[in-house]
Amino acid sequence: MPVITCIDDLKRLYRRRVPKMFYDYAETGSWSEQTFRENSSDFDEIYFKQRVAIDMTNRTTGVEMIGQEYAMPVALAPVGLTGMQHADGEILAARAAEKFGVPFTLSTLSICSIEDVAANTTKPFWFQVYTLKDDDFMQRLMGRAHDAGCSAIVITLDLQVQGQRHKDLKNGLSAPPKLTPASIANMATKVQWGLGMLGTKRRTFGNVIGHAKGVSDPSSLSSWTAEAFDHALDWDRVKELMDMWGGKVILKGIMDVEDAKKAVEVGADAIVVSNHGGRQLDQTISSIRALPAIVEAVGDQIEVHFDSGIRSGQDVLKAWAMGARGCMIGRAFVYGLGAMGEAGVTRALQVIHKELDTSMALCGHRDLANVNRDILLVPEGFEGRWA
């Protein structure tokens, strides 16, 4: 068993064990990948203030997110094709999250279905939906989420037009993977991954195939996807989708103060400051640069969560100190899943929690609820001074 001390250790194992097509799917951004890179590197510009001689016994990182108590302000983000990173990947990740005491978010474009995850977990999870035009499919999808006991939906707002990711096009990304000489040669070197895939029946999009009208097999999925996303999306349509669900709603993809205010107006329970991990609009600012202005504008009216760029517990602590009341991790848990299955997701959560707890203590706090921006040194003009 390799010694895992940080998320990068899991990433190195992940790269060795998962086919290139799926590694590239996770570890890529759109166009030039500037935003993808800066989502993480911009955290390096923020420093902590060390404090000493303060009682550090009985520390807690426990928080409440949308009315539920969790072990730390971290949720597993919705990641499409998670079940291609490791056989039954969504089930394994959901189990790890449940045992650790953090929320798991299932993507609509998951490999394992809503029903698969519900059958293999005991606590409610969150379910992510896209803004699709097909009301019949959306109503049935949300009905299935209700039946599965999902406690909230996460509506992704920043994918009505899909950004281009060069590596996915060059690799011919698909689920199950297309068999080409290059993909076969690469998959032949990933024996453990291949054996896992041979041992599961879940190899394509479980929430869509057989559920969406006219989508009975993977070959018909691409044409449905091209037509399904609602290019005419507006805030009235967002409210329709929220009413269709009727429960707690998190709106993901907010990067602008005016959009945050609109989310408050339509009655969302939380928003996620997110640029989709740099996978949509390239050359926009990082999520951590966008966070403070949004917190200042609406943080007293709505729960503000954060996503994009987190690779450590120190990143979580910085986002929390700047006002985020929850943080979504995507790539960080996918690295663990691809590297070691459920145990790898658990290890990723353990690493992040230890870094969060230790850093909080060295900044002079033993209760995360009392941590604020006072623990940080943020460069003047960090959010940008634009003409």
Description:
The protein is α/β, with parallel strands linked by helices and 387 residues long. The protein has one domain (7-377): Alpha-Beta Barrel (TIM Barrel). 42% of the residues lie in helices and 11% in strands. The strands form 3 sheets. The chain has an 8-stranded parallel beta sheet with strand order 4-11-10-9-8-7-6-5. It has a two-stranded antiparallel sheet with strand order 1-12. Helix 14 (287-298) links the parallel strand 9 and strand 10 (303-307). The mean pLDDT is 96.
The global form is globular
CATH class: Alpha Beta
- Summed up, the domain count is 1
**How much strand content do the residues show?**
5-15%
Mean pLDDT across all amino acids: 96
How would you name the CATH homologous superfamily? Answer: Aldolase class I
Q: Provide the CATH architecture.
A: Alpha-Beta Barrel
**Total number of beta strands:** 12
Strand line-up across the major sheet: 4-11-10-9-8-7-6-5
Q: Total helix count?
A: 17
Computed CA radius of gyration, to the nearest angstrom: 20 Å
How widely separated are the two ends?
Answer: 53 Å
Low-confidence stretches: none
Could you give a short account of the major beta sheet? 8 strands, parallel
Strand pairing plus helix content: what structural class? alpha/beta
